């Protein structure tokens, strides 16, 4: 925490490395298709941007685009930004749901003028594909960390999402550089020399530090939506990173969509063993357009999130605190995963695959993530007071297990808790 507040040593690589395998981890129950690697514990995120001001890691990497995420049209990224850093204006060829893991930020995007929204840890926000946006770390002392999920079903390459930088120069290369300088000169009514000069200035990378003066100007402006006049110079647009151009915009103002804070929502389930929170399109309408849900689970020491499956969506879970074990069963009843996890481990659970998460005896286990549907997930539990087995009639159940009804009634009746159980 002290390092983070001071913008000190970066811990991303340590934090995101998966926990060590237990003896039973090694591809237990795997089909030959996945021999030699586990398709459910995701690989270490691939670094695609590294500057003094921040880093971006993504999954899947280009070599892994045919993997489990790519085949499910899912892209994932992690953005880390130092205090007062700016992610340059860009658009992405996929809609994105952002979740702020740590810190504070200002998101700006262009839609009928500049829209701005301040976000903090726990906030969820949706960015439609194809809209220009930027991110500013508005904290002068703390590092910003953001977790994002992308729907790549309409991207050029399945499983791979692509940034197109609007602001930039030689690094990153602005998309304006894809046009002849004389075409740009005529289009903007400037000289070719001016085009070349402006497009050769930025060489610090996609994430840059802002000067103290510019940072103070940016954060002092109210976070609001405005329809701005487009009569300003494109040169100012490039040099000011698209955020200082809407000061004098005439026209009508409108408020941007509000973020949804995951941890200000009342838990969907809570008992002495932990709690679960889920947000879908009913609570936060923008999630409907992205077809994504968001969840958070907190388990007390040794608690068990009872074996269950999701009938409507696959999910990606990021461990944010503690240690424990994730178990997944193949639908055929063999073990798909029995994995020790720690902070930074990322696990993918396919739709319909039963799963269970268990906290370590030494401390709580917390994880957050995304599901691939904005509809209520309606998880189906196998154990506990809400078990689907308890809903079946005793004759059917007795025949299915080849056991006396009295025995099964006793077997299913001992556990009085539901959803999150004492270990």
TrEMBL record:
Residues 40-196, 260-409 form the Cupin type-1 domain. Residues 1-38 are annotated as: Disordered. InterPro entries: Cupin_1, RmlC-like_jellyroll, RmlC_Cupin_sf, Seed_Storage-Functional. Gene3D superfamilies: Jelly Rolls (2.60.120.10). SUPFAM superfamilies: RmlC-like cupins. Residues 1-23 have a biased composition (Basic and acidic residues). This is Cupin type-1 domain-containing protein. It comes from Selaginella moellendorffii (Spikemoss).
């Amino acid at each position: 925490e002290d390092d983070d507040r001071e913008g000190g040593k970066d811990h991303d690589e340590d934090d995101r490395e998966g926990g060590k395998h237990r003896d039973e981890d090694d591809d237990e129950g795997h089909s030959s298709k996945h021999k030699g690697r586990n398709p459910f514990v995701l690989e270490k995120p691939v670094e695609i941007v590294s500057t003094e001001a921040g880093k971006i890691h993504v999954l899947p990497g280009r070599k892994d685009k045919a993997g489990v995420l790519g085949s499910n049209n899912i892209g994932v990224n992690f953005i880390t930004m130092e205090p007062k850093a700016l992610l340059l204006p860009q658009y992405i060829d996929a809609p994105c749901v952002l979740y702020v893991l740590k810190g504070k930020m200002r998101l700006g995007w262009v839609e009928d003028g500049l829209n701005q929204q301040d976000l903090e840890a726990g906030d969820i926000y949706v960015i439609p594909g194809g809209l220009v946006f930027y991110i500013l770390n508005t904290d002068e002392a703390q590092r910003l960390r953001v977790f994002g999920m992308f729907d790549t079903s309409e991207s050029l390459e399945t499983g791979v999402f692509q940034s197109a930088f609007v602001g930039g120069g030689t690094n990153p290369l602005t998309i304006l550089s894809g046009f002849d300088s004389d075409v740009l000169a005529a289009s903007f009514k400037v000289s070719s020399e001016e085009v070349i000069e402006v497009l050769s200035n930025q060489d610090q990378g996609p994430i840059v530090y802002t000067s103290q003066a510019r940072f103070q100007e940016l954060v002092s402006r109210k976070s609001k939506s405005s329809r701005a006049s487009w009569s300003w110079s494109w040169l100012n647009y490039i040099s000011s990173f698209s955020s200082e151009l809407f000061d004098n915009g005439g026209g009508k103002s409108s408020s941007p969509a509000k973020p949804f804070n995951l941890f200000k929502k009342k838990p969907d389930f809570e008992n002495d063993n932990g709690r679960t929170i889920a947000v879908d399109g009913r609570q936060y309408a923008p999630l409907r357009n992205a077809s994504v849900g968001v969840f958070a689970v907190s388990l007390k020491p040794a608690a068990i999130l009872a074996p269950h499956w999701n009938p409507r969506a696959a999910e990606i879970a990021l461990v944010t605190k503690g240690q424990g074990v994730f178990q997944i069963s193949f639908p055929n009843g063999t073990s798909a995963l029995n994995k020790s996890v720690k902070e930074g481990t990322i696990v993918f659970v396919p739709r319909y695959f039963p799963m269970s998460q268990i906290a370590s005896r030494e401390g709580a286990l917390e994880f957050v993530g995304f599901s691939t549907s904005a509809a209520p997930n309606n998880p189906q539990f196998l154990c506990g007071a809400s078990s689907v087995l308890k809903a079946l009639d005793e004759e059917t159940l007795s025949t299915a297990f080849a056991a006396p009804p009295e025995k099964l009634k006793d077997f299913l009746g001992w556990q009085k808790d539901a959803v999150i159980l004492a270990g």
